[in-house]
Amino acid sequence: MIRRALFVAAAAAAAGCNGNQNVFNPAGPGARDIATLGGLLFAICGVVYVLVLVALGWALARRRRPSDDTDETTGGLTRAVTIAVAATIVILVAITISSVVYGRGLTSPQGPGAVTVDAIGHQWWWEFQYHDITPSDFVTSPNELHIPVGVPVQIKAISRDVIHSFWVPNLHGKRDLIPGQVTNFWIQADRPGVYRGQCAEFCGHQHANMAFNVVAEPMDVFTRWIQAQRRPAPDPATPEEVRGQQTFLQGPCVMCHTIRGTSAGSRVGPELTHVASRLTIAAGTLPNTRGHLAGWVLDPQSVKPGNRMPPNALTADDLQNVLTYLRSLR
Fold first, then answer.
1. Which of 140, 146, 160 is nearest to 259 (CA)?
2. Sign of the CA dihedral 280, 282, 285, 287?
3. Would you say 120 and 126 are in contact if contact means Cβ atoms under 8 Å apart?
4. Whole-model pTM?
5. Which of 44, 203, 260, 295 is the S-S candidate for 273 at Cβ 3.0 to 4.6 Å?
């Protein structure tokens, strides 16, 4: 039983050191500094740990000798203790200096920010708002943060309810979101990819399911994405989409969601103008497929208990029409 538990723990630890959402798989300068500092601390602590174990083993195995009570032995022990204390001081000073040097790099980006994004934490989902000089160019992308590769992105973070924490291990360290305060920081991705982010501060029942994706893409791809996001929702193109839009607008969905270009304008829940273009739904809980979307629309409490979305009593035909309409919103 003990052997099995140790095997499971070792497997879990090994899995945590691979792939996405991993501090030691950096994809940006901030995460790289954190990984370097973490590796340095692990190396120093590992060497000290081994030396302490060796010294302990030597002391336990060694037998006492008559010469241990001589002045020469006492002097040797005093010198050994003095050297150990001096080495400890040097190590602590080196760790302090390294932490300060790397910490400065984490708070200041290496260049001017190309994009500024408001990151707003809700129980239990994320809202990312992109602002432009023209107010009408306002874009919001729930639970999916798109950034251009190779440039710093300024993040202005705030919480709408309780304390949350923004953390993308592959790109940067943790930053808390405090209600009523704006937390300013930055992230940067050096290579394209999709990086998982997570709330890292316990914020309630569904804290573990408050995730998001960071989509890092070349600047031209990012520009095309944000231009597409600025457009209103497309008009229904088929009879099923028309009926689905009517069902959506005449039901309780309009009390919480926005679809730009329609009469749905509430901001209680995530905006759905381009919901079909997103990778996941329910803050990273489910892949954005028709089947998962159907389960989420009908009974979100069975998927994510305690979230703010109530169940929807739709007939089979109404459900299929609503799904067809929502899947057309790209």
1. 140
2. negative
3. yes
4. 0.82
5. 260
Please state, as a whole number, how many other Cβ atoms lie within 10 Å of the Cβ of residue 294.
16
- Contact, 218 vs 224, CB < 8 A? no
Q: d(Cα 203, Cα 218) in Å, to the nearest integer?
A: 34
Residues, the chain, total?
330
Asked whether the beta carbons of 174 and 131 are under 8 A apart, the reply is no
Cα 68 from Cα 221, distance rounded (Å): 74
A 10 A CB-CB count for 220 gives: 9
The CA-based dihedral angle spanning residues 279, 281, 285, 288, taken in that order and rounded to the nearest 10 degrees: -50
> Does domain 115-230 fall into CATH 3.90.650.10?
no
- Residues 286-302 have pLDDT tens digits of 999 999 999 999 999 99
| CATH of span 239-327 | 2.60.40.420
Place of tokens 């060694």: 62
Task: Provide the residue type at 100 as one letter.
Answer: V
In the numeric block, which tokens belong to residue 56? Answer: 């302990």
Q: What is the Cα–Cα distance from 267 to 306, expressed in whole angstroms? A: 19
**Phi, psi (degrees; rounded to nearest 5) at 164:** -120, 175
Which of 293, 280, 287, 302 is closest to 326 using CA atoms?
293
Q: Where are the domains of the chain?
A: 14-107, 115-230, 239-327
3-state helix, strand, coil in the chain (%, to 5): 45, 20, 35
> pLDDT digits over 244-273, tens only?
999 999 988 899 999 999 999 898 999 999
Question: Strands 193-199, 211-217: parallel, antiparallel or unpaired by DSSP?
Answer: antiparallel
